[in-house]
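As noted in the main text, all predictions were made from sequence alone. Below is one such record, for Glutathione-dependent formaldehyde dehydrogenase.
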Amino acid sequence: MKAVTWQSTHQVSVQDVPDPQILDAGDAIVRITSTAICGSDLHLYEVLGPYMEPGDVLGHEAMGVIEQVGSGVTRVRRGDRVVVPFNISCGHCWMCTQGLQSQCETTQVTEHGSGASLFGFSKLYGQVPGGQAELLRVPHAEYGLIAVGSDLPDERYLFLSDILPTAWQGVKYADVPDGGTLAVIGLGPVGQFAARIGVHLGSRVFAIDPVPERRAMAARHGVEVFDQGPDGVKTIREATDGRGPDAVVDAVGMEAHGSPVARAAHQVVGHLPKPVGQRAMETVGVDRLAALHTSLDLVRRGGTVSLSGVYGGVASPMPLLSMFDKQIQLRMGQCNVRAWIDDLLPLVEDPADPLGVTDLITHRLPLEEAASAYAMFQKKHDGCIKVVLDPARR
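Prediction:
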């Protein structure tokens, strides 16, 4: 089969790799019909090279049709149309029963002290082949796979795999009071959905992003948008009686602009020999913290900052004096996808499309164009906000 493979920092390629096989009674094989490039994939593309091997199959946002199931899979069957959550969870361990599927004790990567295994996401999370491919083996398919209807297009359902529940969890963790105010830092795909979810749930939502196309997209959904910089922060603070918003969602993470030293650290770490690079990731502060520091500065005293953007440095500096003085609550973590599906499935199937899932994809391309798509997405060229790859398209 064809699959998108990591080769080195800033280099991916589409290659022929062996078709996946049923290895366990709980497995399923899914033929992929749509698979997206996520902002988190850019971390592998640029930063996390020390944990990657040439040939690793990428991708963790995928959906398709089941081709084969193991003997232990009865809830779904061959021919079912399904979405694949990005984290692999068993559904029966203590963590899963607490709604913490991203910490699944059955698939935890204990070697690296990480939570549940993820599709297509480095040795840190199990080195499980990902979904930017024609076929995908799905472990724990009985619990993990999300069966969906056959009438609506893929774009209605695809984002249930990651970015929509990630945004939903980010807003829920932000704990905005009824009728309160929410700021979203970063209007990439997760930030777009977080802002729209805030509006949907009744908050006044502000958002900051340096890219005009992203701001224009968010504004279409009732979000008050501002360019990156002090003027936007000042205006948001003035609009909230000088206090700042009740909550802030950082939807950027380690990809933040405005951190040239950390950007240089990213570039250096990504090219170091693997043992040295891994050691640097595990002991050095390599994150670009501009978005996080903006969030902590902007939120009102006693407010909440919710991190949906991914950070990777272990020793990244934090302004703890200010955080303590402002009495800031901080919540974060990988999304527990299965915990939010019952809330989200009716919304993506609603004819009114209240979260605007049909207004996100800017580029739908053949799988074979993945290399140029990654470069375009990272550089934000051609108005690129969200790329979906179609394995059947030529």
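The radius of gyration is 20 Å. Residues 261-266 have pLDDT under 50 and may be disordered. These features were considered when defining construct boundaries for the mutagenesis experiments described in Section 2.9.
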